[in-house]
Amino acid sequence: MLGKLFGVGRGAALKDYEVGKHLGSGNFAEVKEATRKSDGQTFAIKIIDKSKVGDMADALQTEIDILRSISHPNIIKLIAVHDEKKKMNLVMELATGGELFDRIVERGSYTEADAATLIGDLSNALFYLHAKGIVHRDLKPENLIYASKAPDSPIKLADFGLAKLVGGAIVMQTACGTPGYVAPEILANKGYGIEVDMWSVGVILYILLCGFPPFYEEEMPALFKQIMSGRYDFPSPWWDNISADAKDLVKKLLVVDPKKRFTAEQVLKHKWIQGHAPKTQLNLTVDAMKKFNARRKLKRAAMGILAKNRVQRMVELAQEADRAVTAAKKR
């Protein structure tokens, strides 16, 4: 079924690779590092368990189709797809430089110019994607990874699990994304387009400049109300020394009306991106980001444990149901 769905033939799967350490996992997939035996080159392999895919088959098909159609220096590249009887293996470019915020916290030295380079790289990737009618829909720090540990390493956009191909009069209505980074039009549930990615860029830019998010409430209804109203500010002392050009770009991106929001092309033409970002150290930003990053990672770990427990409970309930059916048949 899935072999036909994904449109790839059966063939040599992982025998050409030396599979190594675990890199991450999700609901139906695990990511491992792997070395190609023929040349020693390393990759990341996303190993998808077909038995767990279920209703996500169409979304996986879309993800694979999109990844096959794109090639950009700031986007993680799909190298190959290997289909097996029980698993689908996606061989991906391996990025080893770490997540965006982790890297900033580790490096110590950080300026507005560094932030401008990051937003420029991300906007370059989005300009490319949006021109092809592709919207990512889940831009967040976890999906921005450095290619390597090198000081001048480019940033790479990853995880196209929620990406969608749009065009013409097609309007998306599925509510998706990550709270805190999601655009107001998604929450309004009235349809949306590629502009949602640029709102997320605005949120990421805001955090890059001060170290904490523009919208932050513990309760989801309050958070979503704040986002839908576009209510944020530039609190002192964190924003006191941030340039007017940087603030201007934030204001051009965090616009509730998607038609008035900056596009990726407009971001790339903004003077702050074009070399006018100051090179003064953002020490307050780094200190604030350390705290925000620690809370973010703790919350992600807690959510992972809860998800694992839910899956375990579902398995236990299924087993109990099977035992009940077996017992009933014996009566």
Automatic annotation (TrEMBL):
PROSITE patterns: PROTEIN_KINASE_ATP (PS00107), PROTEIN_KINASE_DOM (PS50011), PROTEIN_KINASE_ST (PS00108). ATP binds at residue 46. Coiled coil: none annotated. InterPro entries: Kinase-like_dom_sf, Prot_kinase_dom, Protein_kinase_ATP_BS, Ser/Thr_kinase_AS. It holds the Pfam family Pkinase. GO terms for molecular function: ATP binding; protein serine/threonine kinase activity. Residues 17-273 form the Protein kinase domain. Belongs to the protein kinase superfamily. This is Protein kinase domain-containing protein.
